[in-house]
Amino acid sequence: MTSISLYSLGNQQADDRLNIPKPPRQITRNQITRKMALLLCAIGTLTVSTTATAQQDSLQMTIYGNHQALVEDVRTINFPKGRSSQTLSGVSSHINAASVGFEASGVDIVEQNFDYDLLTPNKLMQKAVGQSVYIVRTNPGTGVETRERAKILAVNDGVVVQIGRHIEVLRDDQIPTRVIFDKIPENLRAEPTLSIQVDSVVAGSRRAALSYLTGGLSWAADYVLNFDEANGVMDFQGWATIKNQTSTNFKQVQTSLIAGQVGEQNNRYNQYNYNRGKVRSGGTESSPQERIGDNYLYPLKGKTDIAAKQTKQISFIDVDNAKASKAYEYEANGFTNIDQPQSADVRIVFSNSAAAGLGQALPKGTIRVYGKDQNGRSQFIGQDQIGHVAAGSDLAIKIGEAFDITVKPTVIKRDQVSKRVTETSMKYEIKNAKSEAIELTIRQALWGWRSNYKILTESHKSQSPNAFSKTWTIRVPANGKETLNFTIREKQ
Amino acid sequence: MVTNPIDIIKTVAVWRRENPVTSLVRGLVYSLALMLVGQMSWAQIGQTSFHPTAQNNNFITPQIKSSESTKQALTIYPDNLALITETRIVNLPVGISEIIFENVSELAIPETALLRGFSAVRIERNFDSRVLGKGSLLADHIGRTVKLTRTNPKTGTAQRVQAKIISASQKSGRIKGVVFEIGGRYEVLQCSGLSERVQFDESIVGQNRVGAMPTLSLRVRAEAAGPQTFVFSYLAKGFSWAADYRVTLGLEQTADLFGWLSVKNGTAKSFKDTELMVVAGTLNTAGALNSAQKQSDKFHANCWPDQTTKTPIPIGGNSRGGFTSGSGVNISSLEGEVPAFVEMAMDKIVVTASRSAKREVKQEELADYKLYRINERLNMEAYQTKQIRFLRADAIKIEKQFRFDIPIWDIVSQANSINGAPTLHRPKLVYEINNDKEGKLGKPVPAGVMRLFEKSQAGRRLITGQTKIVDTPIGEDVRVELGPSQNVMISSSVQSLAKEVSKPSSNYLFSHKIMNANDHAVQVEMRIPYPRGEKRPYNKSKKFDKTKGPNTWTLTIPANSSETLEYHLKL
């Protein structure tokens, strides 16, 4: 199957180069076909032309998160015996022409072209070079119209035309001049069209499978987290948001979404870890979705129309009363004095394990958090971005900074004990203006290459999650303050 | 619990494709299935689509337009974001119908739309961000015949022809010129220099749901006819608010403080009789938050080269679309320097304050932020900035002092270059407003611009300083850092402590002479900032003031006199 080989084509293809116009204009296509047919009849019957728009049997689309999709388009085409030219319209305007595969039994592809020359006034004129047009000039003094036959000689720096035995530049005199074209060139199209020259062994109707990669189609997850702080629970909904940025209307599409990174191994721009600091422990649970390769497949049931420039949302997770809590954190990088007290980070802590109520992998996307105000109205209280998160992971997404919880770091003392040993005394003043007690975790990042750290004295018990950080979890009373003091020895 | 709204959609989609007559029986069966999921929670709409281009429907669905909200609520966040909640009542017929909610903000972020439960079954949701314009009119007429009128510039005769639009090719959201078929030949739009006018049939406007503003539309299926209440909310860009404070300094370290909320609607949508709230604090906005582009299909004539042997002719007016974004209002202008009109508006509001005495701003808690609720409904017009007083405190305690971070290395390098002459610095003027719970202020103070006023001898109130402040909770002093002082100067010098040239030393004597040109005593805080000062000063002429932090001296300089601070430091 051609589609398998398409995966290796990578994702660089998804660009805007092939950003092509609005969809079908039946008339134009028919006219072109009619003209082509006439022309071909006159020449003889070496090649027969047909359009393959007659019947589209099925359209399947697999959308990836990185602005590309695999389209599998099955059509019934009546192939004449021998060579014929098939015009396949209604393909994506962002098609990656190099990825096109076309399969039908007993049919060989001789040549394939993707025409994306737009029918615009400028193109129309450029393609008319060497041909004759009518020009109609309106005399500004008398209002009299003169109609003349002119031959287009060149369209570069102005349009150079030959009228009778003179050569001049169109509208050089600034006199209003209409240009009337006799015809429209065949390869200028009002919609993206793929044309394929095939050689068929026998005549007759057969199914042909067209497959290609296209840019301009993408999806991401949008999550709604309704946080009920008082009860320590949340309602969690996941929406797959499909964006069609192409100018093609896809009708009756069987759609699948792939969550994961496909074909991005060599793209360093995609190595950014969106889960940094947010996923606190990775999960080991499988998600109920079908797995393909290292990724999850989200098939959408039924067929959908994906219209041009459309954003479509489909629900894929909906969980009520899953466990969730809030945590305050402050991250200190190095030992510094900060005059202005700093706000602590607010995080929503939850797990997407089955035990906590979610039990599903979370594809890359944005989590928007809503909380209730005193009138019971839902208010937006912040959002965070996640990468793909395996089921069973512990998450701590940052939604904002607490207005009422501040931390003021002060360097009390910094003594150079010996050439390689420094002792630093730090003070973190934590103030809580809330009417309830809180717990704040201070994370002291210890940035010292080839340094060893040892806590000499501390006012609260520290933990050492790794060699380069210490954490303290401190309880601060309602409308109160608490001070963390410690002295740390650094040996280089 | 994982439900399966996708199944429902499938059902509906199949039903839609069938002949309406044969599907009637089937419809009954499906309606049973649909009723089962009638109690879906408020965000489960099943399938949502926002698409700027209209789709062809197989059968005609009754369209019900709703342009007015019965209730509106607007929550404005500091940084170009708002949550809009609208309640609308729509009279629904039985069966499938399409409700078109007009007047949705043009800067809505489509993927954030949420809908609360109601008893009709939702089928599909669309967000049409396309608006009526030259480009969209042309694009919607591809394959149709329009009237093309050309007026002779001399005789004034209008020549009207039937023209079929065969191409209005789109690329990157632009119409790249229009090609007509006129009497079997081909012509283009607006490349001739003639006056050309295209007339469209009026029916198109209603058909394609293209209006002056974007619409949110919903396909629903109602079991019974009657009015239904829809509550939908979405995030939108184009809104902003800022706090402005006016502090009038009084006698004996007291001042009066006024706080104003400047709320700005930078969008084309007007809000009548709306609830208004603002949220203070820092919200994380990492991730997708892109407002839908108002799709106007800009028109570009895309003509052939028009260079001539003389001066180039501009294709008058047609080469660019006439559309400018509604977001053209500079929202950031609310930050930092607030324009002069704020001052004027303040006085105006003060005058009318007695009349609107009932208007109050109540502060409440929202998660870890502060929510300010305006107690009465008000109108928020398009592109309007509104100012509402939200904070007032009289006789607050304010402490004036001067702060100086001693720039050790600057002093050393200047001493080196100016031949030992003392270097002159000016300390920073800092006001600290007491915000203890028991104090006169004792309220959360959102970030904003603070202006200080003093009364002149003639009794005029003059502005003496203006600066930004940060979010300040209760219990934390509000720090108002102004620029360098005009009347307090610090002259610094450095002397080597080496006794002989043969015995170089890295110990130096620093001395700072603080001169007060004011007719009153001032407090100056002198500090050697870390991390440079890893060596501690010794032989100090005055002890550190431990209450103010490490390596800090507090000096009181009497009126019109000076004091000197000296210490030794190893560099």
Short characterization:
With 492 residues, chain A is mainly β. Chain A is 6% helix and 57% strand.
What does this structure look like?
The complex is a heterodimer of chains A (492) and B (571). In chain A, the strands form five sheets. In chain A, strands 17, 21, 22, 25, 26, 27, 28, 29, 30 and 31 form a ten-stranded mixed sheet that branches. In chain A, strands 5-13-3-2-16-19-18 form a seven-stranded mixed sheet. Chain A has helices at 2-6, 26-43, 121-127, and strands at residues 48-51, 55-63, 69-79, 82-89, 95-104, 107-115, 132-138, 145-156, 158-163, 166-169, 177-180, 193-200, 204-214, 217-228, 233-244, 250-259, 279-281, 290-292, 295-306, 311-323, 325-333, 342-351, 365-372, 378-386, 394-416, 421-432, 438-445, 452-458, 462-466, 469-476, 480-491. Chain A is mostly beta strands and 492 residues long. The model of chain A is unreliable at 1-54 (pLDDT under 50). Chain A is built from three helices and 31 strands. Helices cover 6% and strands 57% of the residues of chain A. Chain B is mostly beta strands and 571 residues long. Chain B is built from six helices and 35 strands. In chain B, a hairpin with a 2-residue loop joins strand 10 and strand 11 (174-176). In chain B, helix 1 (5-17) packs antiparallel against helix 2 (23-36). The longest helix of chain B has 14 residues, at 23-36. The model of chain B is unreliable at 1-59 and 310-356 (pLDDT under 50). The interface between A and B is large, with 124 and 119 residues.
